[in-house]
């Protein structure tokens, strides 16, 4: 692989077209991002739409109801877009002449229907997008046979948690290639002039007919007792629809060659849903009734309403294609389609130019494909998220301060929240709501393409309308009070360092973030370490079923749990805050004592995990050489829960290197450090035996939870292929537990943790994820980060055996690079031409119309790398793009020479060109 020396990169800057748009959006407020893929892929079954008495969101608003029932808080659709406040929406509807339902949205199983929880049962791909969405491309694979709704539901219900999921390909519906590839491309002629091209390919040998209904509608804001205005859609002529809204203005959808234009209202069909009379004969499911049911009276003959569609009936020859063209613009043109293909080609050329600039030259064609599709998935996963908790709780009669407060509803303590923003989602079908720690990882990948959006996302979670007044960052809508790992400080520091090396240090961004992060840090200290022992709990902390008990529920034993991961997360938080505070100290000396505060916190946390002497209530097990959770019984006894899991690896992430003289240049910090050493020599000696954590290569200093001895012992486990090291990354649970399960008996019950490389076999946390063996991208990324941080301290003289027992020794940089290589191999074609991510699914491995479309799953099989869980969780799995970038651009020499500039210089290279 060719490495680039960052110091040799020329500083000449040639601005590409898409970068100009980003700059115009930031500097001149030109609304290049006003229109984008901000439509959800599932609004039904969400907490926002749940008005049940028992909080069963999945059953209260079902997929079957979604075609007939107006949403309160958002909209969904197929390959959809909207404006950035989701006032006006556009998406596809399809019918193959056989399905019982008009295909207006993706279908999937609810949590109770799937043998491994909720799961979308469709095949769709985010193929391309620029950061301003000036060009986007999406693919949906639509079967020509009747969609097997009942078969999917019933077969998955019959399967146990020990069995694989029953997927759409398993039904045989794609046999003989009897399906359509429906490609949707969007291109912007200007910020508010959108071209839409729908290309329908018949992959079968025989001709087939398809109904295509590009649909334009207003989000229903008028049915909920407020004074929000209702938009009006009306036909201008047989090929054009006018959309007028008091806030949005007027735009026109021009529909080239439409068979007819249909109109109805985006309002519930009360008669179908609840056997009540409809206030209007024209309701949300009118197009379903018109196209499939043949009910001509279902649509409004006056050609007006709040929902509309252009109806195309296409006869597509075998192995042939047909095209539909539309244009949405505030200024309709008489020759709207004359230069349509020219504009589309120009926007695709802009996209190619942009990705050519940001993609490392050293990447192979296949790596470039994965890199680009990963970033496209990140950009397609944006969604307008609207949730007014004050109003929602009042509607439930559960507002703690308003009304009677007699009702019950989740999140009642979050009544201050008002969310109305475009936010990066984990997965717009399976997780169509933001998750705090996911979002921090998203920004690491998003910063490759849109720095402004990445920074805004981090600041969003710290704003008054999101974060709780007590400092807690909201977790996710199912329970905003759940606790996610504190990774926002790390992401903030990451983005700041990149911008600094680009010559535009945003100290205001850093300081604004730091103030919010201080509140969050205090919340952690006050709420999750109530005894002041510098040992932290936190509950499941994003690692769902990793423990022997449900860590977010009361323990069956009573007592409490000291969590190795919770405590390591806080050490990591401390060190990131320390780095930020030191940077701020250079601008304002008021931060000097704050800097020491975080340094002191780190020291006490590190000491608490392994105190002087033989203590059964500390997390480090000297005999085993590993960190474990500690169970404290009500009678005062304590026991380590000896499960070798990611919980014990996360302390590796808490590592920060300081250049020689960094802290010494701040006299007050230095004086406080000397005072601490004098007052607590036993603590200093315990956390850094033989002073090995204080002076390293190039006189650098290292602050870490894992001194050299601990590092060597933990890495011996982590790099053992019979333990954590998979051919595809680091497992979340050691393979050792396949033959040696951890078993705990209490009160006549058996609690067991065993190695499960694929799906979970329990219903813990819904049963739709598994941290007992699979590979997860975010924690692998943090392990790589920890190794790269320690490498400049230890240098090339410190090597560890990798894999353990192989006789092959590597530096920490080489170990990080090896993990990155294994993670990348999940998605890349192997020597036999297969992609491990697709396992044994022959259609994805062999078919030319499938094999190069990449899905970025939630997690991956611990032994064979097959994708598992949510199939479109590009969010944090999109980190693979950052990993590919990193190891294609950065040499060990550069990392050793200037560790703080490695990532930043890499991005400088992207901007300046190679």
How is this structure best summarized?
By secondary structure, the protein is α+β, with helices and mostly antiparallel strands. The protein contains 27 helices and 34 strands.
How would you characterize the overall build of this protein?
By secondary structure, the chain is of the alpha+beta class. Helices cover 31% and strands 19% of the residues. It is built from 27 helices and 34 strands. α8 runs antiparallel to α25, α10 runs parallel beside α12 and α12 (488-501) runs parallel beside α14. It is globular and about 85 Å long. The two termini are 15 Å apart. Residues 1-13 and 905-914 have low confidence and may be disordered.
Rg computed from alpha carbons, rounded to a whole number of angstroms:
28 Å
| Head-to-tail CA distance between termini | 15 Å
Residue runs with pLDDT of under 50 for 5 or more positions: 1-13, 905-914
Number of strand segments: 34
What fraction of the residues are assigned to beta strands by DSSP? 15-25%
Largest sheet: 9 strands, antiparallel
Mean pLDDT: 93
Helix and strand composition category: alpha+beta
Percent helix range: 25-40%
In which order are the strands of the major sheet placed? 6-7-8-9-17-13-12-11-15
Helix run count: 27
Q: Shape from CA axes?
A: globular
């Amino acid at each position: 692989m060719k490495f680039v020396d960052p110091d040799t990169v020329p500083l000449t800057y040639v601005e590409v077209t898409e970068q100009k748009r980003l700059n115009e959006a930031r500097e001149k407020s030109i609304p290049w991002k006003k229109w984008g893929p901000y439509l959800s892929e599932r609004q039904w079954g969400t907490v926002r739409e749940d008005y049940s008495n028992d909080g069963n969101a999945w059953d209260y608003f079902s997929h079957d109801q979604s075609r007939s029932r107006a949403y309160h808080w958002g909209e969904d659709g197929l390959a959809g877009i909207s404006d950035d406040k989701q006032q006006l929406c556009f998406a596809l509807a399809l019918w193959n002449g056989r399905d019982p339902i008009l295909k207006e949205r993706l279908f999937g199983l609810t949590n109770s229907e799937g043998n491994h929880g909720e799961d979308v049962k469709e095949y769709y791909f985010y193929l391309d997008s620029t950061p301003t969405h000036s060009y986007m491309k999406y693919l949906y694979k639509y079967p020509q046979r009747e969609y097997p709704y009942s078969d999917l539901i019933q077969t998955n219900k019959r399967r146990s948690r020990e069995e694989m999921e029953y997927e759409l390909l398993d039904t045989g519906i794609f046999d003989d290639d009897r399906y359509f590839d429906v490609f949707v491309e969007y291109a912007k002629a200007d910020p508010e002039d959108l071209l839409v091209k729908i290309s329908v390919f018949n992959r079968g040998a025989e001709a087939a007919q398809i109904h295509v209904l590009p649909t334009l509608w207003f989000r229903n804001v008028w049915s909920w007792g407020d004074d929000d205005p209702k938009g009006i859609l009306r036909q201008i002529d047989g090929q054009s629809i006018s959309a007028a809204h008091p806030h949005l203005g007027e735009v026109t959808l021009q529909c080239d060659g439409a068979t007819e234009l249909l109109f109805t209202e985006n309002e519930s069909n009360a008669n179908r849903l609840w056997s009540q009379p409809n206030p209007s004969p024209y309701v949300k499911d009118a197009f379903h009734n018109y196209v499939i049911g043949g009910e001509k009276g279902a649509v409004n003959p006056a050609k007006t309403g709040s929902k509309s569609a252009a109806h195309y009936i296409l006869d597509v020859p075998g192995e042939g294609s047909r095209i539909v063209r539309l244009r949405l613009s505030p200024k309709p043109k008489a020759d709207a389609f004359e230069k349509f293909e020219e504009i589309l080609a120009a926007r695709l050329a802009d996209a190619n130019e942009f990705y050519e600039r940001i993609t490392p030259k050293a990447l192979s064609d296949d790596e470039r494909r994965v890199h680009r599709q990963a970033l496209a998935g990140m950009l397609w996963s944006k969604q307008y998220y609207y949730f007014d908790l004050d109003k929602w709780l009042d509607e439930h009669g559960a507002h703690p301060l308003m009304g009677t407060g007699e009702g019950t509803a989740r999140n009642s303590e979050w009544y201050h929240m008002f969310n109305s923003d475009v936010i990066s989602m984990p997965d717009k079908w399976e997780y169509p709501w933001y998750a705090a720690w996911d979002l921090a990882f998203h920004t690491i990948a998003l910063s490759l393409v849109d720095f402004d959006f990445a920074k805004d996302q981090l600041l969003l979670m710290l704003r008054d309308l999101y974060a709780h007044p007590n400092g807690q960052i909201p977790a996710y809508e199912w329970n905003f009070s759940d606790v996610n790992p504190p990774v926002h400080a790390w992401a903030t520091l990451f983005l700041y360092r990149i911008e600094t090396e680009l010559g535009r240090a945003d100290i205001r961004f850093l300081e604004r973030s730091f103030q919010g992060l201080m509140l969050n840090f205090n919340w952690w200290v006050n709420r999750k370490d109530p005894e002041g022992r510098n040992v932290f709990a936190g509950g499941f902390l994003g690692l769902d079923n990793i423990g022997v008990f449900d860590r977010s529920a009361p323990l069956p034993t009573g007592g409490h749990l000291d969590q190795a991961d919770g405590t390591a997360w806080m050490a990591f938080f401390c060190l990131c805050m320390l780095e930020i505070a030191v940077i701020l100290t250079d601008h304002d000396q008021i931060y000097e004592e704050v800097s020491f505060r975080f340094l002191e916190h780190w020291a006490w946390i590190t000491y608490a995990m392994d105190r002087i002497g033989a203590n059964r209530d500390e997390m480090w097990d000297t005999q085993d050489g590993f960190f474990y959770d500690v169970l404290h019984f009500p009678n005062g006894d304590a026991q380590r829960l000896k499960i070798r899991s990611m919980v014990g690896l996360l302390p590796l992430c808490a590592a920060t290197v300081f250049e020689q003289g960094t802290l010494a240049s701040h006299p007050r910090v230095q004086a406080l450090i000397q005072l601490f050493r004098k007052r607590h020599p036993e603590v200093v000696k315990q956390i850094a035996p033989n002073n090995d954590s204080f002076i390293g290569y190039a006189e650098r200093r290292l602050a870490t939870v894992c001194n050299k001895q601990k590092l060597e012992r933990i890495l011996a486990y982590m790099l053992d292929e019979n333990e954590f090291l998979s051919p595809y990354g680091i497992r979340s649970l050691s393979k050792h537990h396949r033959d040696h399960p951890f078993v705990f008996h209490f009160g006549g019950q058996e609690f067991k943790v065993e190695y499960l490389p694929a799906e979970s076999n329990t219903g813990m946390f819904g049963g739709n994820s598994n941290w007992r063996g699979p590979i997860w991208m975010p924690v692998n990324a943090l392990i790589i980060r920890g190794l790269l941080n320690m490498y400049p301290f230890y240098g090339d003289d410190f090597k560890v055996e990798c894999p353990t027992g192989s006789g092959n020794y590597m530096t920490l940089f080489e170990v990080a690079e090896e993990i990155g290589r294994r993670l990348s191999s999940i998605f890349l074609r192997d020597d036999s031409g297969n992609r491990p991510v697709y396992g044994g699914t022959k259609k994805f491995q062999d078919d030319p119309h499938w094999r190069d479309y990449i899905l970025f799953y939630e997690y991956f099989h611990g032994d064979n790398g097959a994708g598992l869980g949510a199939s479109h969780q590009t969010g944090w799995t999109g980190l693979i793009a950052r990993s590919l970038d990193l190891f294609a651009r950065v040499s060990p020499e550069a990392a050793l020479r200037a560790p703080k500039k490695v990532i930043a210089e890499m991005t400088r290279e992207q901007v300046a060109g190679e």
